[in-house]
Amino acid sequence: MTQRIVEVHPDPAALAEAVAVRLLARLRDVQAERGHAGAVLTGGRVAGAVYRAVVADPARDAVDWSRVDLWWGDERFLPAGDPDRNETQAREALLDALPLDPARVHPMPPSDGPDGPDPELAAARYTAELTRAAGAPGLPPFDVLLLGVGEDGHVASVFPEHPVAAESRPVSAVRNSPKPPPVRTTLTLPAINTASQVWLIAAGPDKAGPVAAALAGASGLPAAMVHGTAQTVWLLDAAAAAQVPEHARTAG
Ligand SMILES: O=C1O[C@H](COP(=O)(O)O)[C@@H](O)[C@H](O)[C@H]1O
User: What CATH architecture does domain 3-248 belong to?
Assistant: First the structure.
């Protein structure tokens, strides 16, 4: 049974700093236990702020970045280096500042990658990379998996009432995404739910409705359908938490 934590911070800056502190601690703890750690990155506005807060935190030096595997939860299927790719955003805000092992950085393929503009082939390639890293059928350890929450309750590129929400393969192409760009690749709900800790991060008043609905277990809402095997952590600013009842928040 997953433990649910709902943490509310006063504003987006405080939220980003708190997520950065928590992320650095999680990576340190996993490395102390197992030597290497696996994290899954997300895209979106709040993620950018978190990445910049990680780089600004002196505790980043306590993580051995050469033993961190970085994966992506979803990607906008665009050419390499496109500013709208989640990879580009993460590289600029986070990766470029860290002494990572390039072999442990696993972006989802771009639309001008080895398989060309075919998102199904890109999804299959990413599945193969995950399997290779796992060393056996299945997925490598996702010690922490970060997710934004869309205004419609989507997570990664799993959108409500879209066939991708029922996909059972670990990685899927997404066509006709309701949010641009229309073609994407994503980890699916079953893959996300293998992570030991899933963190849903949301800031701003536009997220208040979907956050409250997901916490209440609204059916068909991807944000309500994800959980860590050990912990599901909601990290919110006050605006995103505005409709979350007091009893649903974690004290402290
Ligand atoms: O398109 C996407 O949007 C979501 C949410 O982004 P936000 O800017 O509203 O926080 C993000 O989680 C996802 O990775 C991204 O591809």
Answer: 3-Layer(aba) Sandwich (3.40)
Report CA 43 to chain centroid distance, whole Å.
7
Instruction: Quote the ligand 1 centre to 34 CA distance (angstroms).
Output: 31
What are the boundaries of each domain within the chain? 3-248
**Residue holding tokens 């899927």?**
172
Using alpha carbons only, how large is the chain's radius of gyration in Å? 17
The tens-digit pLDDT sequence of the chain (252 residues) is: 899 999 999 999 999 999 999 999 999 999 999 999 999 999 999 999 999 999 999 999 999 999 999 999 999 999 999 999 999 999 999 999 999 999 999 999 999 999 999 999 999 999 999 999 999 889 999 999 999 999 999 999 999 999 999 999 999 999 999 999 999 999 999 999 999 999 999 999 999 999 999 999 999 999 999 999 999 999 999 999 999 999 999 987
43 lines ligand 1 (CB under 6 A): yes
CA distance 226 to 117: 29
Specify which residues 95 forms β-bridges with.
none
Ligand 1 centroid, distance to 149 Cα (angstroms): 7
Q: Ligand 1 center to residue 154 CA distance, Å?
A: 8
